[in-house]
């Protein structure tokens, strides 16, 4: 027993929680990855960036960005409890929105020996890793280095720049800004910004509460989903949903398949066939009488 904290001390442990080796093995197998390649002698420092990129790509292609818990559930709430998240992802093959995805993935990385704030440090260099932004999010680790463009999906590119944003009053303050463009000669589009300040679990609890409960939040009045498509180990497109509109897009050949769901039965079928998500009957009933229910 750790004698530094008495057993009845109500204060939380200062150490961040991790998943057990057996949980991590089950998670890696759910991604169709070999667990032995990510632990021990098979994961030396020179392999860690490659393995991090593999984890990010497979996470994006296996577990979708989705906010279904705010619509298809009896409670219409989102939990960041790590055991709840593990059950939701690995055992039920669901997904989550930004804070769920990154809380879960960050715990996986800590369990494998990585260090995550929103930033991973490998061999002394810092990388931004985000698995929670949906269809326009990063598809690989991005080195915290200004204006270095790298490929995203098809001809698309992504990069980080240091810049101020319009809302700031301090002209000297600079933030990291994540930008994307859809072709090498396209205009760069700012998508979101972040600092290198570390946030704690209780900070994310507050952010999650506002995002999931405030009626001005987009997530409370619209259903949003995105899942990457992987072929031969490469991300080649995405499946997205907004309310009843669903699209499957392959960026390299421009093929787009779309569907409009006109009823709850149609949308539930799309969740099964396009996203691999099966809801319980209790969850299905949770959307009745809400603004996001599809009525024939």
Could you estimate the helical fraction of the residues in percent?
Answer: 25-40%
Kindly state the mean pLDDT as a whole number?
89
Based on secondary structure, the structural category is alpha+beta
Number of strands: 12
Order of helices and strands: HHEHHEEEEEEEHHEEEEHH
Principal-axes shape call: globular
What's the arrangement of strands in the largest beta sheet? 1-9-10-11-12
Low-confidence runs of at least 5 consecutive residues: 1-13
Largest sheet: 5 strands, antiparallel
Structure explained in plain terms:
The chain has helices spanning 21-30, 45-62, 82-91, 98-111, 201-213, 218-221, 264-275, 281-285, and strands spanning 65-66, 119-122, 125-128, 142-143, 150-151, 157-163, 175-181, 189-194, 224-231, 234-242, 245-250, 255-260. It starts with 20 loop residues before the first helix and ends in an 11-residue tail after the last helix. It is an alpha+beta fold. The strands form three sheets. It has a five-stranded antiparallel beta sheet. It has a four-stranded antiparallel beta sheet with strand order 5-6-7-8, with no helix packed on it. It has a three-stranded antiparallel beta sheet with strand order 2-3-4, covered by helices on one side.
């Amino acid at each position: 027993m750790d004698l530094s904290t008495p057993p009845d001390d109500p204060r939380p442990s200062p150490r961040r929680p991790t998943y057990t080796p057996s949980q991590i093995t089950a998670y890696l197998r759910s991604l169709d990855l070999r667990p032995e390649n990510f632990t021990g002698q098979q994961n030396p420092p020179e392999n860690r960036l490659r393995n991090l990129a593999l984890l990010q790509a497979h996470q994006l292609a296996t577990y979708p960005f989705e906010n279904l818990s705010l619509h298809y559930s009896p409670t219409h709430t989102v939990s960041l409890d790590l055991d709840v998240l593990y059950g939701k992802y690995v055992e039920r093959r669901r997904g989550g929105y930004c804070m769920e995805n990154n809380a879960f993935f960050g715990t996986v990385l800590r369990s494998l020996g990585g260090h995550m704030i929103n930033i991973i440090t490998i061999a002394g260099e810092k990388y931004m890793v985000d698995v929670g932004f949906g269809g326009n999010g990063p598809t690989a680790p991005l080195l915290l280095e200004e204006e270095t463009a790298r490929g995203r999906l098809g001809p698309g590119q992504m990069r980080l720049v240091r810049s101020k944003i319009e809302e700031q009053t301090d002209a000297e303050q600079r933030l990291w800004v994540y930008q994307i463009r859809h072709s090498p000669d396209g205009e760069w589009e700012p998508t979101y910004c972040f600092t290198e300040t570390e946030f704690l679990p209780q900070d994310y609890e507050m952010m999650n509460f506002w995002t999931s409960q405030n009626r001005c939040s987009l997530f409370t009045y619209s259903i949003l989903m995105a899942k990457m498509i992987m072929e031969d180990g490469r991300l080649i497109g995405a499946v997205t949903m907004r309310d009843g509109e669903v699209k499957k897009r392959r960026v390299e050949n421009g093929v787009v398949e779309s569907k409009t769901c006109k009823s709850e039965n149609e949308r539930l079928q799309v969740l099964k066939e396009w996203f691999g998500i099966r809801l319980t009957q209790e969850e299905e009933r949770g959307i009745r009488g809400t603004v996001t229910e599809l009525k024939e």
